[in-house]
Fold this sequence. Notes:
Elements: H1 2-28, H2 51-55, E1 68-73, H3 79-94, E2 98-102, H4 106-114, E3 120-123, H5 125-133, E4 145-155, E5 157-161, E6 176-181, H6 185-198, E7 204-208, H7 211-219, E8 225-228, H8 234-242, E9 245-247, H9 252-261, E10 266-270, E11 282-294, H10 299-310, H11 313-316, H12 328-331, H13 341-349, H14 355-367
Parallel strand pairs: 1-2, 1-3, 6-7, 6-8
Antiparallel strand pairs: 3-11, 4-11, 5-8, 5-9, 10-11
Amino acid sequence: MLRKNVTRTMVSILLAMLLGAALVVSCAQPASTPATPTAAPATKPAVSPSPAATTAKPKEPYGWTKAISIGAVSLKGTYYPCASGWAELAKKYYGITATPEVTGGSGANINLLETGQIEIGFVSPDVSYDAARGLGDYKGKKTALRAMLRGHGMMFHLLTLANSGIKKPEDMNGRSYMYNMKGSPANISFAEALREFYKLDKVKALTMTTTEDSIYAAGDGKADVGQTMSFGATALVETCMTKDIYFIPLSTEAQKFICNKLAWLEPMNIPKGTYKGLNNDVPSVGYNVTLYCMKDLPDDLVYMMTRVVLDHQDEFAKYHPRAVEWTLDNALKSPVTPFHNGAIRYFKEKGIWTPQMEELQKKLLQETGGA
């Protein structure tokens, strides 16, 4: 009897222990989700962002997401390698995707800027002056152009084969002269002023698509005289390496006449040693390159694209021998249009936007009607 009672007691204890263990395991496991819930789960209240999260801004305006294009004219000129350097530095420092584009010249770049096919472009001062004021080919229609910064000098070159018999501009009469380039009024205006001064009424004017055409035509003897303003251009350096090229100098009187007629030009010299066989400076005329955009291009983007070159000038200078001239000292020289607000922001940070520049900006805005 005692054995049976002991046995029943031990069984009861054992069952109690097993039942307790089962309850522990059951409580430790997550409840299974019913196949068809009887009620929708409660919605968690939205968490309001902290004041710091809503007002915090990055220190720099990084992260421009839209790809942009830079109108760089000819592939073997000076603009294209500079534009390539611009694009690479913009990607490296700001994550901006920029692409250099071969275009038909300054006039073409104005049209591309207006239609939004490029965001930034190199434009000669004669074209930008007229376009911003609604003059010349742009009569009755002002273009809202804005300057970003100025850079290297561009000088007109008159080139011929050394054995052509042409040593001065007067010798060009009766010879072929390639200068007529659609979309590049600067080339045409200079040539017409040259012809007027030297009375070159018997030259045969030839048409070119790019200034590279003129360089190669002169080097191959297909044109007696070629013309380019792309100082240090790859095509010109290559031609001088393989051909015996002579550069025709302008007289002091011709320089004065042309610069008085075309106020955007100034006397300059093509320095000796620039090309193979060039042993003396060659008197010419030229201007400084300016990079342009439209008034409504976002300030942050213009700020970054201005800053990326001038803050990293040592790197930029490696892309072309002329790129060394893109400096703070040259950036604000002789503008013919107002500057963009994004560029002004950068110049103010660097301390070079003076009260005199502010007055000049107001004057240019008034001349262009604030367009």
